[in-house]
From TrEMBL:
The chain crosses the membrane at residues 26-51, 58-78, 98-120, 140-158, 197-226, 238-261, 273-292. InterPro entries: GPCR_Rhodpsn, GPCR_Rhodpsn_7TM, Olfact_rcpt. It is found in: Cell membrane. It holds the Pfam family 7tm_4. Belongs to the G-protein coupled receptor 1 family. One of its GO terms (cellular component) is plasma membrane. SUPFAM superfamilies: Family A G protein-coupled receptor-like (SSF81321). This is Olfactory receptor. Keywords: Cell membrane, G-protein coupled receptor, Membrane, Olfaction, Receptor, Sensory transduction, Transducer, Transmembrane, Transmembrane helix. It is a multi-pass membrane protein. Putative odorant or sperm cell receptor.
Amino acid sequence: MAKINDTSTTDFILLGLFPEFQYASLLVYLILLVYLITLTGNSILIFLIWVDSHLHTPMYFFLSQLSIIDLFYISSLVPKMVINYSLGKRSISRIGCGVQMFFCLTLGGAECLLLTFMSYDRFVAVCNPLRYRIIINSKVCLLMAVASWTGAALNSLIQTTYTMHFPVCGLKKIKHFFCEIPAILKLSCEDTSDYEMVLFMVSIIFILTPFSLIVTSYIRIFLAVLRINSPEGRKKSLSTCFSHLIVVSLYLGPAIVVYMTPGSSHTPALDQGLSMIYTILTPMLNPLIYSLRNKEVVGAIKKTLGKYLISK
């Protein structure tokens, strides 16, 4: 993408997103545009949920947490990428690489767990509506959010520490646009097969198990929705659940391929493309998917704009 400046021997070199792509500048500008859209969309959604009392429900509490995660997630990657390209450098220190890995793993893991809790929230709302406010109360919502952040942070601390302890040989060129575990392990001088098996087991907990629970929840939701007599109620339930399933598919699908299949079975370009989906594209699409398909959010936007125009 740009010429590499001289770097310290302790630095890594991030080769960037599709380094052989001919129109690198266009790609960087597109990613920057996606970043700005993500910041705007998620910030607006968080603001609406905060100011509109009609959105002070468990579902929107989880949605606000998802937006916060997405804001931090994409912000841990894109600014570094754009700055490096603008300055004509690709280096990142070993400490900087570890910090970036820790935050990406924390935010990625928290999103996996949060999506699972969101599916449980929808399951209770549809299949057990009379007891919904008792089961999913404010205390339970807070505990779920804390569990998502804490569990992901503890896992990230362990995985980052262990990954970064491996000695690295050669030029330390990371065939990726950020410090992701599979890309770092490929640089190691030591045999990492045992740790890759541990990573696979952890991925079962943070990726495959949430995916299985979410699918199970939505199968039961779908069966319950079919028994709803009201066409309007059936349509509303399916619309909300369909939005959630789009997010889950875009996020967990690529992650399963990257973390749960042998690294030798896919190229660096494929890893980068799949990683871009769940680190850059999904954070942008989340607020669009939830807001455009949600009458309550659209109503909150209209009401907020109406108040602003009247005040003017």
